[in-house]
Design goal:
heterodimer, A: mainly beta, Rieske Iron-sulfur Protein, B: FAD/NAD(P)-binding domain, FAD/NAD(P)-binding domain, Enolase-like, domain 1, 11 helices, 28% strand, binds flavin-adenine dinucleotide, binds FE2/S2 (inorganic) cluster
Amino acid sequence: MTQWIEACAKDDVAQEDVKRFDHAGHTYAIYRSPDDKFYATDGLCTHEKIHLADGLVMDHIIECPKHNGRFDYTTGAAKGAPVCVNLKTYPTKVEGIKVFINIA
Amino acid sequence: MNEPGIVIVGGGMAAARACINLRANDYLGSIILVSEENLLPYDRPPLSKASIVDAAAHEPVLLLDESIVASLNVDVRLGQQVTAINRSEKTISLNDGSKIPYSKLLIATGAKPRKLNCPGGEFALTLRDHKDTVLLREKFQPHKKITVIGGGFIGLELASSASKLGCHVTLIEAQPRILMRGVPEPIAKIVHDRHLAAGVTMIIGTGISHLTENAVHLTDGRVIAADTIIAGIGAAPETKLAADAGLAIENGIACNAQMQTSDPDIYAAGDCASFPHELMGGKRLRLEAWRSAQEQAATAAANMLGGAKTHNNIPWFWSDQFDLSLQIAGSAELGPNTITRVPAEGALVLFHLADDGSIKGASGIGIGNAIGRDIKVAEMLVAKNAKPSPEILADPTQQLKTLLKA
Ligand SMILES: Cc1cc2nc3c(=O)[nH]c(=O)nc-3n(C[C@H](O)[C@H](O)[C@H](O)COP(=O)(O)OP(=O)(O)OC[C@H]3O[C@@H](n4cnc5c(N)ncnc54)[C@H](O)[C@@H]3O)c2cc1C
Ligand code: FES
């Protein structure tokens, strides 16, 4: 099943940056990579449920602003202490100026 | 009998991280971890925060649970105290009289709260481990009078937690302000004002004369009634074992930058250890910080296996009080020139620059995670020994990240 929902406009997210997107009681994080691709993950750190959109994006890594846990946002893989649980990722697509994520 | 393997004294963050990293570095020999505590290694930062205020977080957060211990194949000996290190025979002695041989030893004994040495000092509770938290949680009932001695991080976090639970809280600090050590004044002031706003009575610049069971007597004659008295006056590194074994001690177990003690087969990591820090001007540091304990353990683990890793991670620390989060990276002391940035309303980041323009540290405070990103970039700039543009640092409309590419 697919459920594409509009998350933001392309220009809402700077290159190598992240933006928070809330939908139906759930928080997502939308990333724009240095090579200008869009990615989406769950919005909360798997360590203590902190908003990752307040964190720093470096290449394909998002670093949590709370205790510096790291994830590869393209795969959701946890990349080091203190995080050990991976992040859920969601497919994205760009149509015109809009970014969609598939939350199904 | 098997060859002696690696033995770890202590069962806190540094010990846990060493186990993980020894295996990650493909060490296949035996690991024996001896801890005087009865719990598997658990996380200490929640002990003054969520574990007190949040009923859902009362259980200790294990760093190594049973399944991780099994998968790492660590022989964990709980409830056993190490009483001596016998360097000439390369063994440690336990309180039950037994001995364990080692090829390499890691001392990760942490620190213990300082006790108040005024008359009646024994009436003050302290916080270091999970059972201390269980006791404090019982004491922090609504409307109880809680008096905290010491305006350092643990004291302030406990004042915040007690206040959140509806206690009447008084905090007493002998110095002219709270957080004198390592925290710049403008940030300490935000913390101070937040405590006042929450109704905490702040008594600053006044010493303690003596304690009775239910009162704190101040040097100026005032008497503060208290149902519970807590001392948060710092922690002393747990160095006795090392000192008795003749290892060099210098504000902690003295290590070189490889986290190796004065005995080449013995390493130390975490709150018990001091080491010279190249990026901090070669100054000997002893940190009591959660991330650093992990990083030091990672350095020690690599070097116990024959590596030559130099420990030069930038010190980093955080504290949570009420809705505020504070973070400090690097050193404020080494950077006398301050650049101020206001990244969001109510948030403040100070960058500490040396006279040659290089950045040595940053300190920030804000609601939620307002400052995490800026402190992280600052930390990376410190690691690069960068001389960032003061104009960009001060301008919240400019992304700090651009400075990393310069
Ligand atoms: C209440 C509290 C809140 C904190 N909050 C923060 C925070 O917000 N941010 C932050 O950066 N840092 C914080 N810290 C600091 C951080 O938790 C420590 O830096 C970290 O725990 C150090 O790890 P360690 O392994 O060196 O020592 P510890 O965690 O103290 O572990 C040492 C272990 O060794 C055992 N031991 C000692 N001697 C012996 C012996 N002879 N035989 C057997 N076992 C022995 C001890 O019982 C203990 O289990 C906090 C600390 C406390 C206590
Ligand atoms: S909350 Fe993200 S690393 Fe702890």
